[in-house]
Structure formats: structure tokens, C-alpha cells
Design a protein that fits this description.
The complex is a heterodimer. Chain A has 17 helices and four strands. Chain A is mainly α. A two-stranded antiparallel ribbon of chain A has the order 1-4. A two-stranded antiparallel ribbon of chain A has the order 2-3. Chain A has a domain of about 240 residues. In chain A, helix 3 runs antiparallel to helix 12, helix 4 runs parallel beside helix 12 and helix 9 runs antiparallel to helix 12. The two termini of chain A are about 25 Å apart. By secondary structure, chain B is mostly helical. Chain B has one domain. Helix content of chain B is about 70%, strand content about 5%. Chain B has a two-stranded antiparallel ribbon with strand order 1-2. In chain B, helix 3 packs parallel to helix 5 and helix 3 packs across helix 9. The chains are: A mainly alpha, B mainly alpha. At the A-B interface, helix 7, helix 13 and helix 15 of A face helix 5, helix 10 and helix 12 of B.
């Protein structure tokens, strides 16, 4: 292809696999249960960044409502885990319902007696929601900032619904789960290497799967709809179909992240549906690099790592700095750290490694030349 | 929770009262959205920091009244100037570099919003501030079944005043002609001798100043705290997009409509559930009419 090692697909796959191998080794060096759990949570943040990178960086759809899928799935999982702690005979109704004067288990909660059905619903409900919502938006050719506003409004609406329906959703205090999630007779303690490895494993599967998808013909067409939807339409492709599919896949990723999040924290509350949280996901992807899955993951790790490091006393100042970093990245580094890295690797590979220089102009150069 | 508790039955007098409250809610949202409508309508910039401009207006009032003893009425023009100046600085140093990347202005301004919230929190602390009000602001008007705080009436008056002022500026002055020309086609307007940079800068400052004025009034009926802007931003956006981009009349009509719907839903259920229903309705509405209620034939961005 061209002289920049950054664009070498074999090198990319090698980097990704090496990175996940290193991540998998973390429990060997970090024996502290609390830290391990924190690293596992970063994996969930990284999944969300991948989901944003896919839909926004590659699909060109700025969704500020990824929290919809995350939150719906998190609630599904929270309900499943809560029902695992209840007994159908002696203690059939969760405590918060009793304190809200509910004398029977609502119909909506009945399926969650079965963990299998519960987890399936946790994944299925957000997927179907994104499919329907995406179909509504993209078939009407809603694009650009309108997508951002519509997704944001829908997220806010859902937040108010969950917040208000306290007898059914736990309201503001949320749903705590007494015990870790049990699957196939094994209790998944989030403070053990098992919990961590499950998180890294899912992150690896999601990232590599998304990468393979983006390199396929489907992925190329998705990126074409981002760059020039009109031209893709004139070439005979259904732009809305590709947008719906890529939007739904990003929703599935965010939903998986939501399920894993509750497994790791044993708790879900309306904060999962806060607009600020969904905007944060975009910040992680933007800082790391919206058009690089690896960059987005690094962005999620970096921002959240620094945030934890800043601690509670320094948190306000850190948020101020984060806002500043975000402004600078958007203004000067639209492709994030990955963009910077791309330039650096390009310089090294053409000037120091003497790889073949570029034979054609990049899209940006062409646009500038026009 | 039984249905009877959740669903409030209809009764004429409280319902009429709810309609008045709806008008008041609409005027509050319109006041919050007016600056946004001017900025988005002219420049196509989604300003996520708009709520924080409102917050800055409220904090200007807090500082001016508490530490400098300025009367509340004087705070209206003062906040307009202060927040307008902040808006001008923001446009000149950040926004103008991003005009060709509309999605990125949305992101950059959400970064600005974070900086403003945290900056104010670091300076003034996170706890809510209370602004002492003069005696003529607080009473409630009671005419039979009809209860309305005078303050809400003042807000309506100021909102209509500002709409009128903005309309006169936009449609009856030479400056307004230039603004509308740039909004329609920046290149052609520039070619005809309009200084588009100046128009953009001052329009953004004017929109920010309007948010500042809104902040002064909102500081009177709610506490002032660093992330108070978040309470208005989604509603303000919805008012603008439902009304249609670049039409003041549309914004006013949609604010009235949304305010009334919100109040009616609140009457039958409760405030929080009403927001859920309203936002969902708006999303569905935008699906079928993305150009809004009253779309001018302005260039789509």
C-alpha cells in the first residue's frame, strides 16, 4: 500500500493482539482485588469507546445516546442479578418494591427469574430499540447534528422514565445486587482474576470483531457513507440500511458493556443514563482518536486512569483540565492521539526505515488541492 | 403504586391553572432558547455551552448583588454585557476555526461547558447560592382559583420584550439584513461587502448575552449552582429544533406548545413522567418533520 507502517494491516493486527495479551497478563502483576476490579471497569469503558468509534468515527453518526443501550442492558442485568438473590417461595418480591407499597411482582419482572432469559432480554431489548430508533431516524435521512439532538433527547427521556418509575426500577437509589452473578453454577466474583479476564476477553472479542467488520466490504461502504452519503446512494447502495446496521451494532456493543458493567459493580442506577456519561464516552473516543479502535481504547484508559488518579479531592480541577484537553483535541487534533501517532509513524517509516513513500495523495490532500 | 395515585383526574379549575403554568413554562424555555435560536439560526453552530452561559448570567447576578450591591434590575443589562463579552471571546478564539466542522463545534462547546462548570465550581464552590430578592418580586397573584407568582409574569414580559427586540434587530435594521444575508449564504454575502467574520462574532456575542439575561431571571426563582445550565439545555434545544431553524416565530410557537404540553402532562401524571412523554413525542415529531414547525427556506446545513 503506502510507506506508512501505521496503515500496514498485519502490523495493526499484531499490535492489537499484543495489546490484549498484555492486558490479560495484568492479574499476574496486580494482586490487589480493588485495583483489579478497577482495571476490569476500564475494559468496560474501552468497550463503550469502541462503540462510539464505530458509529461516529467510522459511520459518521454522532450518537450522544450510546447510554441508552448501556443503561437498558445494565438495568436488564441488574434485574437479573437482583432476582438471583430472591426466592420464589419465601421471598418473592425485592425489598425496594415492598417499601414502595407493591404487593406483587410486576409482570415486567417475571421473566428475570430465569438468568438465561434475563441476560438475553438485557441484550435483546437495547438491540431492538436501536434497530427501531435507527430505522426511524435514518430512513427519514436525519443526519448530522439532528441525530445528536434526537439521541440526546431520547436518552434524557429514558433517564426521566427510569427515575420516575421508582416502584418498578428502583428510581434514584437504583438496584443493588446482594451477590455476584452466577452463571453455569459458577459465581463470578468481580474482584477476582476471573472477573477481570471475562472483561478483557469480551473487550478483545468486540474490538477484533469490529476491526474485521470494518476491513470487510461492509465496513468500507459504511466509511463511504460517512464521507459522502449522496455519492454512495447514487452508486446504488441503501445508505440508510448501512447506517441502521452500524448503529445497531454499536448499540449491541454498548449493551454488552452495560451487562458487564453491572456484573463488575453489582449495582445499577440512573447515573448509567445520565447525558453527561454518554458525552464522556464521546470524549474518550475523541481524545484517543475517533477513527482508530485502538486509539479509542487508549483514550478510555487514559482519561479514566487519570480521573481515578486525580482522586476525589482533585476531581474538580481534573474535570476542568479534561474539558480543556477536549477543546484542544477537537480544535487542533481532530483525529486524536491516534492521528498524532499516525503522523509520527509515517515520519519514522519513510525517513528512517526507508519504506516506499506514498504513491498517491491522501483524501485530505486531495480535498485541499480542490 | 396504583393507577389512581399515578393518574390525576380532570378538574376544571386546577386544569385552567395548569394551562397558565404551561404558558409560564413555555416563556421560561423560550427565554432559555432565544440565544440558542439566534446562534443556531444564523451560524448553524450547536452551542452545548449555552446552558453554562445562563449559569454565568446567574453567577454575575450573584456577584453583582451580593458583593457590589447592584440592584437586580441593573443586573439585566450588566449580565448581557458580561456574558456577551465571554461569548465574543469564545467565538474569536475557538468557534470560528470550526465553522466547516459543525459536529466538532458541538463537541468543542461541550468541552467549554465542562470548563465553565468546573471553573465556577472551583471559584464559588459547589453549594447552591441564594440571591436575596427585592420585595416586589416575590408575591403571588391570587385571583380566584388562579395562582401565579409575579416573577413568572415578569419573565413572560422580559421574554416578549427580548423577542420583539431581536425581531426589530433582525428585520428592521441594516445590521439585521447583513445577519440574514450571511445566514443564507456566507460567500455571496461576503462578496457583496458584508464583513461575515464581524457578523458571526457579534451574533454569537448577542446570543450569549441573551442567555446571560435569562440567567439573571432564572437566578430569582431557582438556586444558583454550577451545573444549573444542564436543567435548561435539552429543553432549549428541543424548542429550537421543533420551531424550525432560523425562525423566531417558530421558536415562540414551539416554546408555547411544548410548555403547555409539559404542564398538561404534569397535571395528569407528574413532572418527571411528563418530561419522558414530552421528549419522546418531540423525537417522534422530528422523525416526521425534521425541518420543524415553521421552516424558512434557509440553506440546510
Amino acid at each position: 500500500m503506502n510507506g506508512n507502517l501505521y496503515h500496514n494491516k498485519k502490523a495493526q493486527w499484531a499490535t492489537y493482539i499484543l495489546f490484549f495479551a498484555l492486558l490479560a497478563l495484568v492479574p499476574v502483576f496486580v494482586p490487589q482485588a480493588f485495583l483489579l476490579n478497577q482495571f476490569a471497569r476500564y475494559c468496560v469503558y474501552a468497550m463503550l469507546a469502541v462503540s462510539v468509534s464505530l458509529v461516529w468515527g467510522f459511520g459518521g453518526i454522532l450518537s450522544l445516546g450510546q447510554g441508552i443501550a448501556f443503561g437498558l442492558a445494565a438495568y436488564g442485568m441488574g434485574m437479573t442479578m437482583m432476582m438471583q438473590g430472591q426466592d420464589p417461595v419465601s421471598n418473592p418480591i425485592p425489598g425496594f418494591m415492598l417499601s414502595n407499597e407493591l404487593d406483587h411482582l410486576p409482570l415486567m419482572w417475571e421473566p428475570f427469574w430465569s438468568p438465561t432469559v434475563g441476560v438475553a432480554l438485557a441484550l435483546l431489548v437495547p438491540t431492538v430499540f436501536f434497530m427501531i430508533f435507527g430505522t426511524l431516524m435514518f430512513q427519514a435521512r436525519v443526519a448530522g447534528v439532528f441525530v445528536a439532538i434526537m439521541t440526546l433527547a431520547e436518552l434524557a427521556a429514558l433517564y426521566f422514565l427510569v427515575y420516575d418509575m421508582q416502584p418498578f426500577t428502583g428510581g434514584f437509589p437504583g438496584l443493588p445486587a446482594a451477590q455476584p452473578f452466577k452463571a453455569f453454577g459458577i459465581s463470578i466474583d468481580p474482584y477476582t482474576p476471573l472477573g477481570y479476564w471475562l472483561a478483557v476477553g469480551l473487550l478483545a472479542v468486540i474490538t477484533l470483531g469490529t476491526k474485521a467488520l470494518l476491513q470487510s466490504k461492509f465496513g468500507l461502504i459504511v466509511q463511504a457513507t460517512r464521507d459522502d452519503p449522496e455519492r454512495v446512494r447514487l452508486l446504488g447502495y441503501s445508505v440508510s440500511l448501512y447506517q441502521i446496521v452500524v448503529y445497531t451494532i454499536s448499540g449491541i456493543i454498548a449493551a454488552l458493556a452495560g451487562i458487564w458493567w453491572v456484573m463488575l459493580t453489582q449495582f445499577v442506577s440512573p447515573t448509567a443514563l445520565e447525558t453527561q456519561f454518554s458525552i464522556s464516552m464521546v470524549i474518550w473516543a475523541a481524545v484517543g482518536g475517533r477513527r482508530s479502535l485502538f486509539g479509542a481504547i487508549i483514550g478510555a484508559y487514559l482519561v479514566n486512569g487519570l480521573q481515578s488518579y486525580a482522586g476525589d479531592t482533585f476531581l474538580d480541577t481534573w474535570m476542568l483540565i479534561l474539558g480543556g484537553i477536549f477543546i484542544i483535541v477537537v480544535r487542533f487534533l481532530p483525529m486524536g492521539l491516534a492521528g498524532l501517532f499516525e503522523t509520527a509513524i509515517g515520519y519514522v517509516s519513510t525517513n528512517l526505515l526507508f519504506l516506499k513513500p506514498k504513491k498517491y495523495l491522501s483524501a485530505e490532500r486531495l480535498r485541499a488541492a480542490e | 403504586m396504583s393507577v389512581a395515585q399515578f393518574w390525576h383526574p380532570f378538574a376544571l379549575e386546577p386544569f385552567l391553572n395548569a394551562l397558565f403554568i404551561g404558558l409560564s413554562i413555555g416563556s421560561v424555555w423560550l427565554l432559555a432558547a432565544l440565544g440558542l435560536a439566534v446562534i443556531y439560526g444564523t451560524m448553524g453552530v450547536i452551542n452545548m455551552a449555552h446552558g453554562e452561559f445562563i449559569m454565568l448570567g446567574a453567577y454575575s447576578t450573584y456577584v453583582l448583588t451580593t458583593f457590589l450591591g447592584v440592584p437586580v434590575l441593573l443586573c439585566l443589562p450588566a449580565a448581557f454585557v458580561i456574558v456577551g463579552a465571554i461569548g465574543l471571546v469564545m467565538e474569536r478564539t475557538l468557534i470560528r476555526f470550526l465553522y466547516h466542522r459543525p459536529l466538532d463545534t458541538l463537541l468543542a462547546t461541550s468541552g467549554v461547558s465542562l470548563v465553565l462548570i468546573q471553573g465556577v465550581r472551583l471559584i464559588f464552590g459547589g453549594s447552591p447560592q441564594n440571591i436575596p430578592l427585592p420585595a416586589w418580586v416575590s408575591p403571588v397573584m391570587d385571583i380566584g382559583f388562579f395562582h401565579l407568582a409575579w416573577l413568572r409574569l415578569y419573565i413572560m414580559i422580559v421574554t416578549f420584550g427580548l423577542i420583539g427586540l431581536t425581531w426589530i434587530i433582525m428585520y428592521r435594521t441594516k445590521w439585521g439584513v447583513q445577519v440574514r444575508a450571511v445566514a443564507q449564504n456566507k460567500e455571496v454575502a461576503s462578496a457583496c461587502g458584508v464583513n461575515a467574520d464581524l457578523v458571526y462574532g457579534l451574533t454569537f456575542a448577542y446570543g450569549a448575552g441573551l442567555a446571560g439575561v435569562a440567567g439573571v431571571l432564572f437566578s430569582a426563582f431557582k438556586d444558583v449552582f454550577p451545573d444549573m445550565g444542564a436543567d435548561y439545555i435539552v429543553e432549549a434545544f428541543l424548542v429550537v429544533v421543533v420551531g424550525g431553524v432560523g425562525t423566531l416565530l417558530g421558536s415562540a410557537a414551539s416554546a408555547g406548545l411544548l410548555g403547555e404540553l409539559s404542564s398538561i402532562f404534569s397535571y395528569f401524571t407528574n413532572d418527571t413522567f411528563a418530561k419522558f412523554v414530552l421528549f419522546t413525542l418531540v423525537v417522534v415529531f422530528l422523525r416526521f418533520r425534521p425541518q420543524g414547525l415553521f421552516a424558512e427556506s434557509a440553506a440546510r446545513r
